[in-house]
Amino acid sequence: MSIGDLRREYRRGTLNREDLQPDPVTQFQAWFNAAQPAGNRLWKIAIGFYKWLQIVFGANPIEPNVMTLATADKSGRPSARTVLLKGVDERGFVFFTNYESRKGHELAGNPSASLVFYWQELERQVCVSGTVSKLPAAESDAYFKSRPRGSRVAAWASHQSAALKDRGELEQHFAQIEKRFASKDIPLPPFWGGYVLRPERVEFWQGRPSRMHDRFSYTREGSGEWRLERLSP
Questions:
Q1: Which of 73, 88, 122, 184 has the fewest beta carbons under 10 Å from its own?
Q2: Is 211 known to be catalytic?
Q3: Catalytic-labelled residue, pool 17, 180, 211, 230
């Protein structure tokens, strides 16, 4: 079968204006809760299936907080990668990374960014765009301390996005950091921390048959209020 012949119909649900909350962050939280295994029967079935795949084939379990983060440099050249959402509140959407990575350098020069969440089993997508700023150091430190020890070691060991001679060089860095902090608490690296994306536009997409999808966008007005519109699919 050719790539052009790959297709599926979307029949899981509908989305109407009366279903939506006045605030897009509140609406996102409702959809995110539904996307978690504890909140949705379809996800429970999917998680069970993926756990079976993990046992048999080593497949990874579903992570509903996976999102695509798109940034651009000062010239407007875009780049995108998958990262993990680590919080959402009235400020916006929170994630953590190395400030010296490619995305860190791009955000320093151009703080505009976009996020995309896609929950295939629910046939839902959320697109967010806005402005990114760094979290306070104390908040980054609190999150860093909650990470598994191996992840904290890796944050120090990886010069994220920098070229490596080979895998051995990275593993050598990891071993050196493990030795450096043996039997010690691992502090927050000065080059690592969190960002929050303050949304200016949020779009909710629900797949429908025959590509007649339901789409609604929230756009922040100058007054801070949100304008809600249905969009053509």
A1: 184
A2: yes
A3: 211
